[in-house]
Amino acid sequence: MSEIKVMIVDDSAIVRKHLGDVLTKAGIHVIATAADPLFAMQRMKTNWPDVLVLDVEMPRMDGITFLKQVMAERPTPVVMCSTLTEKGGQTTMQALAAGAVSFVTKPKMGLKDFLEDDSNGIVNAVRAAAKANMSALRRATPGLPKPGAARAAVVASPQEAMAETTDRVIAVAISTGGVQTIEAVLTRLPRTVPGMVIVQHMPPNFTASLAARLNGLCDLEVMEAKDGDRVINGRVLFAPGGRHMRLKRSGAQYVVEVFDGPLVNHHRPNADVLLKSVAQCAGRNAIGVVMTGMGDDGARGLREMFNAGARTAAQDEASCVVFGMPREAIKHGGAQQVVSLDDMPSWLMAAARSVVASA
Q1: Annotated catalytic, 297?
Q2: pTM for the predicted model, two decimal places
Q3: Structure confidence by residue, pLDDT tens digits, 113-125
Q4: From 140, 182, 325, 328, which residue has the greatest number of CB atoms within 10 Å?
């Protein structure tokens, strides 16, 4: 896409001006701004944007309601703007579940300086959104039609059920488009699935909201990880936003270590940090997956898992919202298989049975 057309919808004139300046400086065409969704929809009828940058709390109509209307009328990549608070995290989870591609956080204080800082992520978020596969996003978003939606959920028969053990672990790296995607996977997994450790690129507060939402939707126990948490069957541990996570061995058990540290390849949590630790601690007893996301985080870690004898896969391009991370994982030679989103739950269970068989 040679030129990205963007509309900014925010009730703050300051936010509209400075976001517009940052995007224009980066060569992105801001075709219009609007103070609320009703004004925005009027303008969109004559000049539909490639990407919407959307606030949450606005007069006359909130951003979530507007987002759902846009997705129903003409699915369009949306980047949400939300405050870095617990409430903001919960609202952003609703937006991502309703079809938003990604989000950027804005502080309560120092807003002008933040908006003028070209390292705040808005430019990269808009560029990634412009490349988003909206068909894949719709398939991954609950409540919207999905190919094969009538198929039975993946369940383990008594003969196939995993034995109760802490010796198996599934590690997942995921980013842009990941909220909808990981929900589509976890809601179709049985409680017998091996313990899962996941890095989803998010700031503080947001991973707690994500885990709480998924915990209410799944048969699994979904948590934001705390230092020393055990990795056990049926439990899913998300690396906390703003902190790294790695796997450790404690006798016959796996536990996670949650720790502070510098950004690694621009990310904290970083997927390579997690996957490399899984390769070292679990080796052949592990399963690794790199799913939708921008960039190359996880590619090197998945390769190390592959080298250590783990079962590995990357999500296929057709079902990815953004194919960046899986593409790099494939290029680095870490993915034994390329698996669609629809097939991922059954692949994970088959890989887990294979690990048991070869143990």
Answers
A1: yes
A2: 0.78
A3: 766 665 567 888 8
A4: 325
